[in-house]
């Protein structure tokens, strides 16, 4: 049983019912077609989502006829499927889930690995306004039997057995819960029929195998064929046995529910009375961390994240307005300044938000005013003035908005923290001293008087992802990045004008003419380490040839801007490596644009994607050391070509060994050499030689 091809199904539906009309306006599903292999999938509906009704329908090919999805009726339940619509910023997130359990697919354990799919269906999600279909999402469902879906594991309580009698890791190669791991013969979830397929190729090692093959320098590894018994002279001994019964006793640990809060240790170590160091948490007078909402590596907004000394950040947090609770204001917090008994009170300035729609979206209209309105902080900007290892001043600017107490919607908050020197004025912030610091903006300037650019940019799209509404974010040193946006075009678009618009948008990312080699290059002195940007392959925006005048087709349209930045190490300052930029090159890439039509090409709006990428390439500070004549002629001791090589004879004493610090390895090597010399001196041949010399007549 296979999935029917989608194009004949859609063609028959369109011809018979005539309701799948071409895309009207800007309403579109992203992506428009999904191949579903799990219990849930999601897509985004972007465009004008106001007053849009979303419905779900099941397409069934019975007797050659397919039912037509009826637009205009909110339908969230269709047989075994449910539809959930979640509003986001200028878009709707549509999620389709399978309601029934897949347990019915499995009659015995061999069905877990059946070659036939368990669920094969075709779904269509329709978006309509005033009973008029505007966009469709086609979902091709093909779900295979999987034991990980059939067995639900409880994560509330984890019982650890007593390792004195039962090892904690009895089967190290069992990596997948509820499924059979190939070549893992100790996996209890493998049936006898499956184990018979790979019984002769099981992983070797303790308790059923080690999935990581040992490296050549292990003492337990047998010597390779053709290698003398004295090689290697020294080897490495590891003990990574999973049997923990000799060291640990089992216990029961209760699982904890996930929470967006940051749980800090009860016994906080406060060394702020002796001055702050970079990265130390800023402390309050109550010996608690001074916290400001920040974004974690997983993209989660942490409300109680501590502020680190001399570490700037600029983050945005999105939260539901009806569940948001305002925290204590910064005006009531007293912060330690880094001196014994020194306390600082932040200077707070309040401003009112002028454009509420910029911060709060997807709001609902309230019929009654209800309780008294409340104030919410939409932006908080902190400036810390530092002097050596102390904080001299704290200035806070808070932008707040007045909303109804029962107002619902999605609120976007912005939090910035910046550390400035106590004697700094309005000069431009440096990106290092003297070399660039990782994550700092790449400094740039423009010799053109019409531009005052100070850095390179990338797009930061929001909402519908259009280039006209996209904002800019700086290019950060050492961080490769890729961004893009959508340019609205028409079917009868003038190709020369399209090329000019694309080049203008791409050039707006690099408005500068020079970049700084170092992080502290002087903006007022062009000779202080400023490099001119190399602009290669400038595209031609001339008129089209007479043979390329077809509507909806444009040749050689600039679509991508590639920025390559070469950098290298330029020495050290107090043991810290300093890096500088050696050159910057920009290059355009062109594509042939074709207007995408539905069944018929109407004079509607289309999208032309533009993208920009930044790549940092590190150049070695000096050329690699040339090979000696001995290395060129005598290749029998080359480690890359032979089993025996001199650099690996004393492997634990070389730089390649990373198991212990190198000075500790050298110390152990000298100690071993001392024992060896002492053993030679006290050995029987040396004693007899010494006695023979003493007894010899003079």
Plain-language structure description:
With 698 residues, the protein is mainly beta. The protein contains seven helices and 31 strands.
Largest sheet: 6 strands, mixed
Cα gyration radius (Å): 34 Å
Low-confidence stretches: 11-25, 62-66, 147-156, 241-266
The backbone outline, from C-alpha atoms, is extended
**Beta-sheet strand percentage?**
25-35%
Helix vs. strand class: mainly beta
Q: Residue-averaged pLDDT, rounded?
A: 75
Total DSSP E strands: 31
Q: Percent of residues in helical segments?
A: 10-25%
Instruction: Please count the helical segments.
Output: 7
Oligomerization: single chain
Kindly report how far apart the N and C termini lie: 105 Å
Outline:
This protein has 698 residues and is mainly beta.
Name the features.
698 residues, mainly beta, six-stranded mixed sheet, five-stranded antiparallel sheet, 7 helices, extended
Secondary structure elements and their pairing?
Layout: H1 6-17, E1 28-30, E2 33-36, E3 40-46, E4 53-59, E5 77-78, E6 81-88, E7 91-98, E8 117-129, E9 132-144, H2 147-150, E10 157-159, H3 192-197, E11 252-254, E12 294-295, E13 301-302, E14 313-320, E15 335-336, E16 343-344, E17 347-352, E18 360-361, E19 374-387, E20 390-403, E21 410-421, E22 444-445, E23 457-460, E24 471-474, E25 481-490, H4 495-507, E26 514-516, E27 530-532, E28 534-536, E29 553-573, E30 576-594, E31 605-618, H5 629-633, H6 662-681, H7 684-695
Parallel strand pairs: 2-9, 17-20, 19-21, 28-30, 29-31
Antiparallel strand pairs: 1-3, 3-7, 4-8, 5-6, 6-7, 8-9, 10-11, 12-13, 14-21, 15-16, 18-21, 19-20, 22-26, 23-24, 25-31, 26-27, 29-30
